[in-house]
Design a protein that fits this description.
- About 10% of the residues lie in helices and about 50% in strands.
- The strands form 8 sheets. Strands 1-32-31-30 form a 4-stranded antiparallel sheet. A 4-stranded antiparallel sheet has the order 2-3-4-5, with no helix packed on it.
């Protein structure tokens, strides 16, 4: 898709999205035949990828026709096997963790060919460094990170802290950040030589997000009820009280706002990245995932207990909802090109596709797409 086509798609979405949103019903529902435990989107190919809880197959959904194709992975019997998906849009490669078999499935997006790369024990989370074409896999029980170099086809295990549970990449500084739940720390991997330094954070860090523009890392300390901010240049830290049991965190690098999901009770805390002031936004019963459309400044929150997607307007912090037609909306992905939201339903074994909330695109994006 060239820039002119992208521009046309965006303008069409803005003109046509409002009616569908007012209806608040899915544009389409795609059955999977398996519990939808993870979802990802490839903007280069306009394809959605969803993995079922048993890890036996990966479902590819065409973003234009909503037609689906099943890609066989690995039979793991009755055990829950897959937990995460990562996509490299540059190489059109999809990576899927298999917890039971201790490996990562590598799926060619063009041919659907599948290969497997062994990891250390209990791979739990993963992230791709698009600048180097390397994959970083946090191995929860092994206290390791498996580094997969897709260019050289090599694999290396690096020791980190106890119970690594989340990974994030700053491609601009060539650093990888790993949240170690069991040792209250973040391991910082220098990708040039794979050396590791340790930064102390709050109690039981479970998720982190990187603001590449400002070289900051945000870590949710679930048992410490705080958000730790790490300066990517100095590794200096600052703690911000956010409320009970912060879990998921995402950053809008355009507006410099950080969104933290509190699981008890289910609310979102909006943190100003400049002043570190906080605003509490009621957002349902139990927040399990956050996805951000930075172009339109809309934040989408998965509330599985309420079976809905809660939408936060980033400019006003007002909310609206997309009620699910299934039973337990679990994970989210956003397509900013078509202004669509993809919600994986864990229990109903399907993906619900919603028209996103309309918004005015920044002029810089329109100018860039038209060049």
């Amino acid at each position: 898709m060239n820039r002119w086509q992208i521009l046309m798609v965006m303008l069409f979405a803005l003109l046509c999205g409002s009616t569908s949103v007012m209806a608040q019903t899915p544009l389409a529902t795609v059955p999977l035949g398996a519990n939808a435990s993870a979802i990802g989107f490839n903007p280069q190919t306009n394809k959605i990828y969803v993995v079922g809880g048993l890890g036996n197959s990966l479902t590819e959904i065409d973003g234009q026709t909503f037609q689906s194709t099943s890609i066989p992975l690995q039979n793991t019997g009755s055990q829950v096997a897959s937990s995460e998906i990562a996509i490299n849009p540059v190489t059109n490669t999809i990576y899927v963790i298999n917890v039971v078999s201790n490996n990562v499935a590598v799926v060619n997006g063009a041919t659907h060919a599948v290969s497997f790369i062994a990891t250390a024990q209990s791979p739990y989370a993963l992230a791709v460094n698009l600048a180097t074409n390397k994959l970083y896999v946090a191995d929860f029980d092994a206290n390791m990170v498996t580094i997969i170099d897709a260019r050289k086809n090599t694999v290396k295990n690096v020791a980190v802290g106890t119970q690594p549970s989340a990974v994030a990449v700053n491609w601009a500084t060539n650093r990888v950040y790993v949240a170690n739940s069991g040792s209250n720390s973040v391991s910082v991997i220098n990708c040039q030589n794979d050396s590791v330094t340790t930064v102390a954070v709050g109690a039981y860090p479970v998720d982190l997000a990187v603001d590449v523009n400002r070289n900051k890392v945000y870590v949710t300390d679930t048992l410490g009820n705080e958000l730790t901010v790490i300066d990517g240049k100095t590794d200096a830290t600052q703690n911000i009280a956010v409320g009970s049991n912060p879990a998921h965190v995402k950053v809008n690098s355009v507006t410099n706002k950080i969104y933290v999901a509190l699981q008890i009770p289910g609310n979102i805390v909006v943190v100003d990245g400049t002043t570190y002031s906080t605003t509490l936004v009621p957002a349902g019963l139990f927040e399990n995932d956050i996805a951000i459309d930075e172009w339109r400044n809309k934040i989408y929150v998965a509330d599985p207990t309420g079976n809905q997607v809660v939408v936060i307007d980033g400019a006003t912090n007002t909310t609206s909802t997309f009620p699910g037609s299934g039973s337990y909306l679990w994970k989210l992905a956003v397509n900013p090109l078509t202004n669509e939201v993809y919600a994986a339903d864990l229990v109903a074994q399907e993906v619900e596709i919603f028209a996103g909330v309309p918004g005015t695109l920044p002029l810089a994006i329109l100018e860039s797409a038209g060049q």
